[in-house]
Write a structure and sequence with these properties.
The complex is a heterotrimer of chains A (290), B (339) and C (236).
Chain A: H1 2-32, H2 39-57, H3 66-85, H4 94-115, E1 131-134, E2 138-141, H5 142-164, H6 166-176, H7 178-183, H8 188-213, H9 221-235, H10 240-260, H11 264-279
Antiparallel strand pairs in A: 1-2
Chain B: E1 9-12, H1 16-33, H2 41-66, H3 74-91, H4 96-118, H5 123-143, E2 153-154, H6 157-161, H7 170-194, H8 196-206, H9 208-213, H10 218-244, E3 246-247, H11 249-252, H12 255-268, H13 274-290, H14 295-311, H15 315-324, E4 334-337
Antiparallel strand pairs in B: 1-4, 2-3
Chain C: E1 4-13, E2 16-26, E3 31-36, H1 42-50, E4 56-62, E5 65-66, H2 72-77, E6 80-83, H3 95-102, H4 113-119, H5 121-125, H6 136-148, E7 154-158, H7 166-181, E8 185-189, H8 193-199, E9 202-207, E10 210-216, H9 222-230
Helix pairs in contact in C: 3-6
Classes of the chains: A mainly alpha (290), B mainly alpha (339), C alpha/beta (236).
């Protein structure tokens, strides 16, 4: 019995990471229906940048790099959206899809060229080994708990932004009806770029935490992208808490699958994703109206 | 009251240029068929790759450019085809060339349940859904021990040798099959798009609801195209791995297969038949001249994709053809009043 | 001097020309009606002024300032508000959020919410509801309120009476009359010709992208309107 509880607990903690991966994606996908294939690669980029920044400035822990990385990646997201993606955001799915595919290839191979294919890891220090003992012989790591807290904080923050600020209102209005939003005075190219900037800012956090949690290589991007997307789609479009739920459901599914056999971890996650998608094509907690 | 005026008309699907290019293509194919007898092994091998890339790209184009189904999961069928070939040859003792057909059939059969999932979704969801299905295939094959699981497997030399037919060398046979595949995919696509079903297909791509209102059974047509392209992709995959002689899940189900197809079609010109030809040429030229740059070659490819998408959304052929109103393999119809 | 002046406007959708050499003007406080059959170009004209129809040639000035090259967000920031055809409320937003979106461009000049609720009291009760949960007439009020909250100098309404019961249309026009008495300049696109002519000071009739009739509503005859609407030459 406790093995099941352990699986579920670990699944929730794993799911928190996926939710963190997915936060930015949920925002961008929700606002502009953009499938950013490079999203996962940007998380990897953030991890590598954190590694480099830490060495460059001699920080004691990678967490300090966030002070630089978050604004840096916000600007990167803004500029990429404004310069490269906005012009292509006209009609169908394909143009922006291939552009972000191109970005994905550039980031992955760029990282391979600069850093080689060796596995890297960010060192979280003692935080990585501390754990809290629970009744029944279970243990919860401090670091995974921190990730859960950060995930909830970021998703909660984005949710507040979307529902309690003028900017958030504009983002939701634009995702409903871009033409009418522009008639209300929303500068849509700028707003989309802000959304992408915010997305990459969350990616910065996701990258640093993910880099501490486990080793990473330049080609991890696509795998993480799929987890992020699955979390967003399971949860439902337009709901950031839905994304958290989606991430957790995915994490728990994977964790239970892993319990049977390590090779089944990813497979179980994908199968649960497909099943849920078939049963509820709009996700479990889609935005109120659509 | 007078009877309504009837304007005599006919629907034209060819032009002088298209008829010339039709005959020219036949001539070119005949010449290409003789290539193994006057080009070196290395070059024959490159040409073989050219034709299977062309076939794969054209199949992807048929889905995304003409049917409105964006697939990021073609590698599912490609890998499946490769594995079915390996299985059929090593476990069932089939001749490799027979196994090729079996691989194609397997693709077609698996396409049916896949369509159940894929067609439930639209747009971006559909695209990601196809990718996830490919990942599922890869993960399943990772578990199958008899096919080498994670480390993959090699095709025994004895089986590889069976590909040789009489005095025609193995690499020549493989090249000819690739050529045949490329030509058949082009020819069948051309025939399909010029038929009534093709017209229905393009109507579906442009506006599925309107097409259905006009009486088109969109589900059935899309399914047909999906099954046919899966057959072709699986067959191509079987051919590829018959040539490579070694298969593993990471390689066979690599998303890069689809990214190359996408790249070729979009750079060449999506929604046109000539586009993939141009795209494959560009792809191979870039590979020839830039591969010495190593990993940077891929960075350039990515940058090129972005630049073309921003400034030439119709691709190289698409932009050129629209400007000059040229069409070598036309898929449109012209309504001509008879004077 | 006119508040709004449109000269030699040609508007295009891709290769297709929708408006041909349009000249219209609206003075401060005037109510202009735009009438014409479906597809005549009325909405295109509104879109051209508002900036949502980008492909155009010609001159549009608002209070002396040229606005033809401006994007919609810059146009509305100068004090033009639009009630779009079909209302186009934001389905994910509540009534109140929809109204607040109207103030997005001009939060300095915007009216406070309570003034909008004073004009439309029934909306205050439903302010936290999703806009889609309201009746057709109420949704129209939200759309008008959303346009009014920006405290515009020019209000453009596209097809207000479409799809509404006559009694609701009457209510809406009563509200418009109140707004008019505050001195707001209005450009009204209306399918219902008699209502349009009864309400407006001047009217323009569009037919296949061209102005086929213009004049003071008190002076235009019924026969003139019929001919202009359907593109018939006088006496045909």
């Amino acid at each position: 019995m406790s093995i099941w509880i352990d699986s579920i607990l670990q699944g929730i903690l794993l799911g928190a990471i996926y939710a963190l991966f997915a936060a930015g994606l949920s925002l961008v996908f929700g606002v502009m229906r953009l499938v950013n294939v490079a999203h996962g690669d940007f998380i990897v980029l953030a991890a590598f940048l954190a590694l480099w920044l830490q060495k460059l400035f001699g920080f004691s822990t990678p967490f300090w790099t966030l002070l630089l990385l978050v604004p840096l990646m916000f600007v990167l997201g803004y500029v990429l959206q404004r310069a490269v993606i906005n012009p292509a955001l006209t009609e169908n799915v394909l143009r922006p899809l291939l552009i972000t595919f191109g970005l994905s290839i550039i980031v992955q191979n760029g990282l391979l060229q600069i850093f080689s294919a060796d596995a890297q890891k960010l060192q979280g220090g003692s935080l990585e080994v501390v754990s809290f003992a629970l009744p029944g012989g279970l243990a919860l790591g401090a670091f995974p708990l921190l990730m859960l807290a950060i995930s909830v904080a970021i998703l909660g923050g984005l949710q507040s932004l979307m529902f309690h600020t003028r900017l958030g209102r504009a983002l939701r209005a634009t995702s409903d009806d871009i033409k009418t939003a522009s008639l209300m005075g929303v500068r849509t190219p700028h707003l989309f770029s802000i959304a992408s900037g915010l997305a990459l800012a969350t990616v910065a956090v996701a990258g640093v935490f993910s880099g501490i949690r486990a080793s990473f290589i330049p080609t991890n991007g696509p795998d993480w992208l799929i987890f992020a997307f699955e979390a967003v789609i399971i949860g439902g479009l337009g709901s950031l808490w839905g994304t958290l739920a989606g991430g957790i459901i995915l994490g728990v599914a994977q964790s239970i699958g892993a319990h049977f056999s390590p090779g089944w971890q990813l497979l179980t996650g994908h199968l649960v994703f497909l099943a849920l998608l078939m049963l509820r094509p709009r996700g479990l907690f889609p935005r109120r109206t659509e | 009251m007078n009877a309504p005026i009837q304007t005599p008309f006919h629907v034209n699907q060819s032009s002088r240029l298209s008829r010339i290019s039709g005959w020219l293509s036949v001539a070119v194919v005949v010449v290409l068929a003789t290539v193994p007898w006057w080009l070196g092994r290395g070059q024959v091998s490159v040409l073989m790759e050219f034709f299977y890339y062309l076939a794969l790209a054209q199949l992807w184009n048929l889905l995304a450019g003409f049917s409105g189904i964006v697939s990021l999961g073609q590698q599912a069928f490609l890998g499946l085809g490769g594995y079915v070939l390996f299985f059929a040859c090593t476990q069932m003792g089939l001749h490799p060339l027979v196994a090729l057909l079996l691989a194609g059939l397997a693709g077609a059969v698996i396409a049916l349940p896949s369509a159940l999932a894929v067609f439930r979704l639209q747009g971006a969801y559909q695209a990601i859904g196809t990718w996830v299905i490919a990942e599922i295939f890869a993960l399943i094959f990772l578990q199958v021990q008899v096919l080498g699981a994670g480390s993959g497997m090699s095709l025994p030399v004895s089986i590889a040798r069976q590909v040789q037919i009489g005095s025609v060398r193995r690499d020549a046979v493989l090249y000819l099959i690739a050529l045949l595949l490329g030509v058949l995919v082009m020819a069948c696509s051309y025939a399909l798009l010029r038929s009534r079903t093709g017209l229905a297909l393009m109507a579906i791509r442009d506006n599925e609801l309107s097409a259905r209102t006009a009486g088109v059974n969109s589900q059935r047509i899309k399914l047909m195209v999906f099954v046919a392209t899966s057959f072709g992709t699986a067959l191509a995959g079987a051919l590829i791995y018959l040539a490579k002689l070694r298969i593993s899940p990471q390689a066979a189900f690599d998303i890069n297969w689809t990214s190359y197809m996408m790249f070729i079609v979009i750079i060449g010109g999506i929604g046109t038949l000539e586009g993939p030809i141009v795209g494959t040429l560009v792809f191979f030229l870039l590979r020839e001249y830039l591969s010495q740059l190593g990993g940077s070659y891929l960075i350039l490819l990515g940058a090129l994709a972005i630049v073309v998408m921003l400034f030439l959304p119709g691709g190289i052929w698409g932009t050129f053809a629209t400007r000059l109103k040229v069409s070598l393999f036309p898929t449109q119809r012209w309504f001509i009043e008879d004077v | 001097m006119s508040l709004l002046e449109v000269s030699h406007l040609n508007a295009f959708y891709g290769d297709m020309q929708a408006l041909f050499d349009i000249d219209i003007a609206a003075s401060h406080g005037e109510v202009i009606a735009l009438i014409g059959a479906n597809g005549a170009g009325k909405s295109t004209l509104i879109g051209s002024i508002a900036g949502t129809v980008g492909s155009k040639t010609g001159i549009i000035t608002f209070d002396g300032e040229p606005i033809a090259r401006l994007r919609p967000w810059d146009v509305v920031a100068r004090g033009i508000a639009v009630v779009p055809e079909g209302r186009r409320l934001f389905p994910s937003l509540t009534v109140e959020e929809n109204l607040l979106m109207g103030a997005y461009a001009r939060h300095k000049e915007a009216l406070p919410l309570k003034e909008i609720y004073a004009i439309f009291p029934q909306l205050e009760r439903k302010r936290k509801n999703l806009s889609t949960a309201l009746s057709g007439g109420e949704q129209h009020m939200v759309a008008i309120g959303r346009a009014l909250i920006s405290n515009p100098r020019l209000l453009m309404c596209d097809e207000l009476s479409l799809g509404l019961a006559p009694v609701i249309v009457q209510d809406i026009y009563t509200i418009l009359q109140r707004i008019r008495s505050l001195g707001l300049t209005m450009l009204i696109v209306e399918q219902n010709v008699s209502r349009a002519l009864a309400f407006a000071d001047r009217a323009y009739c569009l037919q296949e992208g061209r102005i086929s009739l213009e004049g003071r509503t008190s002076e235009i005859t019924h026969e003139q309107v019929s001919n202009a609407y359907f593109g018939l030459k006088a006496g045909a």
